[in-house]
Write a structure and sequence with these properties.
Blueprint: E1 12-16, E2 20-24, E3 29-35, E4 38-44, E5 51-54, E6 61-64, E7 70-75, E8 78-82, E9 87-89, E10 92-94, E11 101-104, E12 109-112, E13 115-116, E14 136-142, E15 145-147, E16 160-166, H1 181-211
Length: 212
């Protein structure tokens, strides 16, 4: 039967002009659709998004998923597919995966990620494999991969990092001492001043003899 604006009573065992399907055939799921202030029943082969099929001896029904941001669920408390933009993890939906898990974009699921251990102590400050002879060097610390990720495409966090450090000994013991460049520059300037003064003095003496 067709009751005008109401849905066709296909699959119904009983149908109302005002409320649509009231009872469905065996194997079908009863779904109570709401549109504004109005609601009516439908008999469906599968439940719509946000609902799951609950089979009972009396009548199969479409029950709403109770998991937030869930698109389809296995039961009221276990989501099998989340809404777009959310990752599925152990029957729940998340904007970002929990700590220790990585996002698998193609399936929008959270899988076991790469686990790393604690950082080691900072190593010896060195430069060019030497621990002296320079003012500044680099020191490094590392950490080990404790558990490899479930997928090879999931990257691991960095396992080594370095930072700038000041060396404990700038001059190496027994090394050849060299005069700093600044001292050489000062000596050269002093020599130039002396030569200039001697030249001016010679010019002064020559001028004085001419005037006599």
């Amino acid at each position: 039967a067709n009751y005008g604006p109401n849905p066709i009573c296909k699959g119904c065992l009983s149908c109302s002009k005002d409320n649509g399907c009231i009872r469905c055939q065996h194997k079908l799921f009863f779904f109570l659709r709401r549109e504004g202030m109005r609601q009516y029943g439908e008999c469906l082969h599968s439940c719509p998004s946000g609902y799951y099929g609950l089979r009972t001896p009396d009548m199969n029904r479409c029950s709403r998923c109770r998991i937030e941001n869930c698109d389809s669920c296995f039961s009221r408390d276990f989501c099998t597919k989340c809404k777009p933009g959310f990752y599925s993890h152990r029957g729940r939906c998340f904007r970002g995966c929990p700590a220790g898990f990585a996002a698998l974009e193609e399936l929008m699921e959270c899988v076991e990620g790469c686990e790393v251990g604690q950082w080691s102590e900072w190593g010896t400050c060195s430069r060019n494999n030497k621990t002296c002879g320079f003012k500044w060097g680099l020191e490094t610390r590392t950490r080990q991969i404790v558990k490899k990720p479930a997928k090879d495409t999931i990257p691991c966090p960095t396992i080594a990092e370095s930072r700038r450090c000041k060396m404990a000994m700038r001059h190496c013991p027994g090394g050849k001492w060299r005069r700093p460049a600044k001292t050489k520059d000062k000596k050269k300037k002093k020599k130039n001043l002396m030569e200039r003064a001697q030249k001016q003095h010679s010019i002064f003496l020559a001028t004085d003899k001419t005037s006599q």
